[in-house]
Amino acid sequence: DLEKAANLVNSNGDWGYVTVVVTEDQRDKHIWQKFMDDCRRLRLIPIVRVATKYTDDSWETPREDEINNWINFFNSLNWVIENRYVVIGNEPNHAKEWGGKIDPAAYSIYLKKFSQSLKNSNSDYFVLPAGFDQDAPNSKQTMDQKRYIEEMLKAEPELLNYIDGWNSHSYPNP
């Protein structure tokens, strides 16, 4: 799909961005180096979203003991440009995206630790938090984005010092 993505986002001849999800069981250096090389050839800047494994109707809760495996994998790749864009997770304000439960404190602790570890290994990492479902209500399975972020910052008041930008899921919902 990279050729189609390049035609879409590079229609004016400039470089464009493409987001790709990498799961724990897909960390094959040869496959992803070819992806990076193809992105370079097609003038696409990859934004890599970190994911775990999908089991039992939800994504597994990320584990801190996997962070070094991610870093070793990422550092084994020849990235397309100096900035190495990495998104940590996806819509954690949905229980199904965080091991079946809503846990803003755990997500903020994980995000901070992952960011610190990435930046300690290479200052070229540009760390983004997960995008949130901006329309999620407060329920057993979801939490309102504003409340979720407030709970994250209660757990890690300095969290915003450890991320480099903001990720938004800007699409009509529902």
Low-confidence stretches: none
Bin the helical content: 25-40%
Helix-strand makeup class: alpha/beta
**Mean pLDDT, all residues:** 95
Number of helices: 5
- Please indicate the percent range of residues in DSSP E strands (runs of 2 or more): 15-25%
The main sheet orders its strands as 1-2-5-6
| Gyration radius over CA | 16 Å
Distance N to C terminus: 26 Å
Main sheet: strands, sense, barrel: 4 strands, parallel
Count of beta strands: 6
Please trace the helix and strand order, writing H or E for each element.
Answer: HEHEEEHEHEH
Based on CA inertia axes, which overall geometry fits?
Answer: globular
Q: Can you offer a commentary on this structure?
A:
There is one protein chain. The chain has 174 residues and is an alpha/beta fold. Helix content is 34%, strand content 17%. The protein is built from five helices and six strands; from the N terminus they run αβαβββαβαβα. The protein has helices at residues 2-9, 29-42, 67-75, 104-121, 145-155, and strands at residues 16-23, 44-51, 54-55, 58-59, 84-88, 125-129. The strands form two sheets. Strands 1-2-5-6 form a four-stranded parallel beta sheet. β3 (54-55) and β4 form a beta hairpin. The chain is globular. The relative contact order is 0.14. The model has no long low-confidence stretch (mean pLDDT 95).
